[in-house]
Design goal:
Elements lengths: L1 E10 L3 E4 H7 L4 H8 L3 E4 L7 H16 L8 E5 L10 H9 L5 E5 L5 H14 L6 E8 L17 E11 L5 E9 L7 E3 L10 H5 L5 E3 L1 H22 L9 E4 L4 H10 L11 H4 L6 H8 L9 E8 L3 E8 L3
Parallel strand pairs: 4-5, 4-6, 11-12
Antiparallel strand pairs: 1-7, 2-3, 6-7, 8-13, 9-10, 12-13
Bound molecules: oxa(dethia)-CoA (UT7).
């Protein structure tokens, strides 16, 4: 028994924030952003008073309709996010309420850009144990709510979106989550974080004045850790299962930076056509970026295709999955 994705739907905010508009906010250029990151535009949830749950609930409603699932059949709803609506209650609970899921329990997973791989690994364990049979997994971020649009080091990078997936048990060897390997190294807390608003530095007039409620990133250091760790863990996953480049249909990498995800794919011996990318029009949506790629390219996959999924993010967290497409 293992977990398999049996439905996937996305919610993208309408507003498109272009590089041209970012050029008006900070001292940067379209050329610099494209060359250094691969990003051309990103979606932003503009309206005040709407959080991650707005997009998450929209994605779940589409998922329930597309899969013919009744809200009362769902036994668990998990939400991976670093931009919860509020510190508490969990955004998973808020989404459940908005969509009428009443017979489920759930929680949020805070794993930075590894939101999808950490939460899917957790759900897989419950599915294998027979304790969860119809799980809705939501990955959602309103990154624009914690992005400092006066900081050129970070504001070109991030976008907003949510994806909802229906996860069920399968006993078929041709589909589902075969294996995963996850890691954490707390040294990352010095290089990528949101300083204030938690219990260590509660919100105050001073924390707001010092702009400490926004993402702070030492990009160069994060880049170095990301390049080596994402490639190492992906190559290790191939070795563990005796997978050669020809055995892999696609690499689904976290969309942080085109240079990082290309380097990972090339270390695995993959040609560019096997490295799936949508960073150019969606930017870095943290833990949502991998399911956004799965959703966007879903018609390209065949049941049983071998996918390697790989991510690196705040924490530091990183990991890789060996997944067989099951739709
Ligand atoms: O998703 C979670 C994990 N996050 C990541 O994986 C992100 C990893 N890091 C990165 O993707 C890259 O480090 C960035 C895209 C954030 C930055 O690219 P970089 O090539 O590492 O640039 P840098 O930070 O080394 O900066 C190089 C230069 C600096 O100028 P000096 O000091 O050489 O004069 C920066 O001030 O580029 C400057 N710079 C910019 N220039 C124009 C930084 N941001 C910008 C900008 N426009 N937006």
């Amino acid at each position: 028994m293992r977990a398999v994705i049996k439905g996937i739907e996305a919610s993208l905010p309408e507003y498109i924030l272009t590089n041209a508009e970012i050029e008006k906010l900070v001292d940067t250029s379209d050329e610099w952003i494209r060359e250094r990151t691969g990003i051309v535009e990103r979606r932003i949830l503009k309206q005040d008073g709407l959080g991650t749950s707005e997009m998450g609930a929209d994605a779940v409603r589409k998922l329930l309709a597309a899969t013919g699932t009744k809200p009362e059949e769902v036994d668990m709803l998990v939400c991976a996010t670093v931009t919860p609506d509020m510190q508490f209650p969990a955004t998973a609970n808020i989404i459940s309420d908005k969509v009428g899921i009443k017979n489920a329990w759930g929680f949020d997973v805070n794993a930075g850009c590894c939101g999808f791989i950490y939460s899917f690994s957790t759900v897989d364990a419950l599915v294998r144990a027979g304790r969860a049979k119809k799980v809705v997994l939501v990955c959602g971020e309103r990154m624009s709510g914690i992005t400092d649009y006066t900081d050129r080091n970070t504001c070109p990078l991030f976008g907003d979106a949510a994806v909802a997936m229906l996860i069920e048990p399968t006993d078929s060897p041709d589909e589902g989550l075969v294996d995963y390997e996850n890691h954490v190294d707390g040294i990352g807390r010095h290089y990528l974080y949101q300083k204030a608003g938690g219990s260590m530095y509660p919100a105050s007039a001073e924390t707001v004045a010092r702009r400490e409620h926004y993402i702070i990133q030492d990009g160069k250091t994060v880049f170095k850790y990301a390049v080596s760790n994402m490639a190492d863990v992906s190559v290790a996953m191939m070795a563990r299962h005796g997978l050669k480049p020809d055995d892999i249909a696609y690499l689904i990498p976290h969309q942080a930076n085109l240079r990082i995800l290309s380097a990972t794919g090339h270390r695995m011996g993959l040609s560019d056509d096997k490295i799936l990318v949508n960073i150019e029009h969606l930017g870095n949506t943290a833990g949502t970026s991998i399911p956004l790629v799965l959703w966007e390219f879903r018609d390209r996959f065949k049941r049983g295709d071998n996918l390697i999924i790989s991510a690196f993010g705040a924490g530091f967290t990183w990991g890789a999955m060996y997944y067989k497409w099951g739709l």
